[in-house]
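Technical appendix A lists one of the benchmark inputs used to test multi-chain prediction within the project. The record comprises two sequence entries:
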Amino acid sequence: MPSHGVPTLSGIVVSASIAVFACSGDRRAGGTAGETQKDALVIGVAGDEYGLQLNRSRVGMYPLNASICEAPFRLSQALATEPSLGAKAEHRGGNTLRVTLRGDVTFHDGTPLTAIAVKETMDRSVRLRTQYSFLSDSSVRIVDDTTIDITPSVLNLRLAEQLAHPTYGVTATGTDPTIRPICTGPFQFVEYVPKSHITVERYDGYWGQKARIKRLTFRFYPDDNTRALALRAGEVDGIYDVNRGMVRSLQKLPGIRVVTSPPGAVMLMHVATRGAAPYDLMSEPALRRAVALGIDRRLLVDRVLGGYASVVSTVNPPVVLGRHAPLVNGIAYDADAARRTLDSAGWKAAADGSRSRRGRRLELSLISQTGVVDRAVLEFVQAQLAQVGIRVRVEQLEAGAFESRLNSGRFDIDIEVPNQNDANPAFLLALRWYTKSNVRSAPFMLAGPRFDSLVAASLAAPERDAAQRFAALAMHELVDRQAAAIPLAGIFRIHALSTRIRGFEPHPARVSQSWSEAWVAK
Amino acid sequence: MRPGIADLIGARVVSVLPVLLGVSILSFAIANLAPGDPAAIILQRQMGEAPTAVEVEEFRSRLGLDDPFPQRYGRWMGAALQGDLGLSYVSGRPVFETLVTDLPATLRLTTAGLLIGIAIALPLGVLAAVRRGSLLDHASRLLALCGASLPTFVVGYALILVFAIVLGWLPVAGSGDVAHFILPALTLGLLEAAALTRLTRAGMLSVLFEDYVRSARAKGLSGFRVVVRHALRNALNPLVTLAGIRFGRLMGGAVIIETLFARPGLGRAIVDAIFDRDYPTIQGFILFTGTLFVVVNLLVDISYVWLDPRVRLTAEQRANA
């Protein structure tokens, strides 16, 4: 995962050096109208994540999407579904979704797209457990050559929205995607060298708009600073996912522009509403409300996140709730109200600013995973809450320790940045706070029966608008009434590109980034 | 082989067996006692979503993680003795195969680093000792100080900035051709040179005023012969010892260098494995490199028999007694 951390020592060294050398001239030149284009585009990305055992079948698809495969539907910039291989999706009553496939699609080997290929793909995702839509090996039924019926094993009317996730990228019948993924996308697979690069090439038989660039290579640079230096040296035309701490120095480089995507994720405080002692403080609604009141999100966005974020009230990017997003108000910053709330709840302030009640000190445990949330954000939250008398013990943990703490409920607050990778407005709600969620940390975060019934209604709503409305109402319950989740900021993805790159439109969801419009001027 | 020397070598070999057993227990314990459930972490990464409790339990059971620690250690050690280090939880490949595949790249890098280090350190250390107090001596000490105090990544970034960004002579990172190899090897080599220069200088200073060196000078031998044939030869013993010990440090340095320069190798494999809680790979790596380190130092120990006549004589005297 890319880190969006504050500058580390190495970051400072490199950033300073980049800034110094920014004045030493530029080997790039800006493009002009009517310019010719280069044949190849090279993008520097973070570490190679295809090496995972189950991910082998998703080389070029997930988590880095090289635009070689297509799912039945596509996730739009507005985080809604768009037709892709599936021309149409309709609910057939009950729990069944009928998907009608396009008839003019061919795989990269020239064979036509059929319902059999889609079924094989879905069945493989069930077998390899790379799906999350409650599908079973009997869920997919072929109706005819271009029609399939999909019936999840539990009620799930959000399936069409989930089918926009690249994990459902369809591969050709009888082929082995672990050896060579043969799909239908605008690019076809050329080469994958683990931990080095993946190269794809334009597919001229593509059914939609053909890719602009002939050859596209993603080079893996696990180190953020090396990736930035590779851009500076001209070894790559762009770097995808820039460490926030390096943005300022990259912006100073001639021939480089920094672009951002709309928020595809929300930095979020999860609170342990059902924690056991000593992690039971946040089960108190007044305390949760005081925490929400005590954090100035505008200041966080402007000062700590450098403006590369937005103030949001929702736990998902607001756009996913459509016109219903305003139903979630958020709890506005009001430090005085936070203090009053704590006073009323019996948390008495001492001379040193700390608070206690019946001998129990008001101190919360805040955990976060290293590399996911900036240390500066954690310290900001700590400082803000200290001002209203809430002491916070911050622990930044690496993945294993973090998961262990989270899944055993040994925390009061957890800050994460969950991504919205499909169009389901209730995805995060059902995953994190829903009583029926099977996620191991969910029992410590539940938001109550009203919230549950609204999530259930969203999951069971055949129409997207209704699903969005129920999800927004559930979020209102979660955020505004229960303060069981505290949104901090909508996070932008940041990329640094050569000014010669044209046509690149940053997608809010990394896994749905399209490269077919991008090209490089000579 | 003369009597006494065989006994000496045999005793050395036997002495490493408990060390290897300790390495195996430690490597298994370090990986297994770290916080975090590998089943949950691996599933999370593979599925892209948080796994359910049932999925985690099933996966744990499939990996045999439910068994008690001693049982798991016994099973692992038994297989390891037959060359089977298990399958990676993450890639599904045999760990031994990963080690064998990735080791050559790391060995090439560490060997190149060591050779570059020695190539810089030997002449510099000798000259610094011979011209003690000169500008060159001060420069060598400054190099040693920098090498000891600068983290590996700072040296790596500095070299990238100079050779790839400013001069444009070499690529920033990657693993294509020889050009991609130079900067990582040089980074390791410079750091190695710092430590070895200091030791060479100290070793030379300690022998340059010995009686036998003075005798050699008195016999009218040239300065060069005195230094190289008489002084340096005796100053080399601690250098050989250090080279063995430094091997472990070089392997550790490779972990950073391979990540920094985006090169494949054991270093990157182990970093990935640690973050993934890929126990078999972590255990296999620690056992493998630990064994390698022990063997290298065993060879260094044994090499004294040939390098230092006093060791040989003592062994022979014991055998004859």
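Chain A touches chain B through 53 residues (CB under 8 Å). The two ends of chain A are 32 Å apart (CA to CA). Comparable benchmark entries are summarised in Table A2.
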